[in-house]
Amino acid sequence: RRSVDIKTQLRKNVEKIGEMIASEAKVKKSQDDLHSAEQALDKSLKDIRFSTEDTREDFSNTKDAYLVLGNMLSETTDLIENLFTEITAVQSIASQINLYSVNASLDIARGGIFPQSNRGALEDIKDLAAKKKKKTDEISILVIRCKNSTKLALDQASFCEERQEEAAESFGTTKEKLS
C-alpha cells in the first residue's frame, strides 16, 4: 500500500512538474509577447515623433511661404501706388498741354497769326510732350513689373496652398498614428 501511495504521489509530482514546465513556457511566451509589444511601442513612438517633426516642419514651411507671399503682395501694392502716381503726373502734363493748345488756338483765332510771344509756349509744349512720353514709358515699365509681381505672387499662393495641404496631410498621419 505504501508503494501505491508513493507511486501516486510521484505521479502527482510528475504532473505538477509538467504543469510547472507548461506554465514556465507560458510565462516565457508572455515575456516574448511583452518584449515584442515593447518593440512595437518603441517603433510607434519613433514614428509618431518623426511624423510630429514632419508636421511641425510642414507648418513652418507653410508659415514661411505665406510670409514670402505677404512680402510679394506688399511689393505689388507699392508698384501699383507708384503706377497711380505716374498716371497722375501724365494727366497733369496732358492738362498743361491742352491748356497751352487752347490758348494758342485762341490767339490764332483772334489775331489770325500765331503771336511771337507764344513761341515760348511752343517750346513749353515740346518739353511737356517729351515729359509725357518719358512718364508714359515709365508707366509701361511699372505695368510690366506689376504684371510680373502679380504672377509671382500667384505662383507663391499656389506654393502656399501646396505646403498647407502637405501640413494637413502630415497632421492627419500623426493623428492616425496617435489613434
Explain this structure.
With 179 residues, this protein is mostly helical. Helix content is 95%, strand content 0%. It is built from two helices and no strands. It has helices at residues 2-111, 119-178. α1 (2-111) runs antiparallel to α2 (119-178). The protein is rod-shaped. The mean pLDDT is 81.
Beta-strand proportion? under 5%
Q: What value does the Rg take, in angstroms?
A: 44 Å
Uncertain stretches of 5 or more adjacent residues: none
Shape summary: rod-shaped
Number of helices: 2
Distance between the termini: 66 Å
Number of strands: 0
Average pLDDT works out at: 81
Could you give a short account of the major beta sheet?
none
The ordered H/E elements are: HH
Question: Which structural class best describes the helix and strand composition?
Answer: mainly alpha
Helix-residue proportion: over 70%
What's a concise summary of this model?
The chain has 179 residues and is mainly α. It is 95% helix and 0% strand.
Helix and strand topology:
Layout: H1 2-111, H2 119-178
Helix pairs in contact: 1-2
Which structural traits does this protein have?
179 residues; mainly alpha; rod-shaped
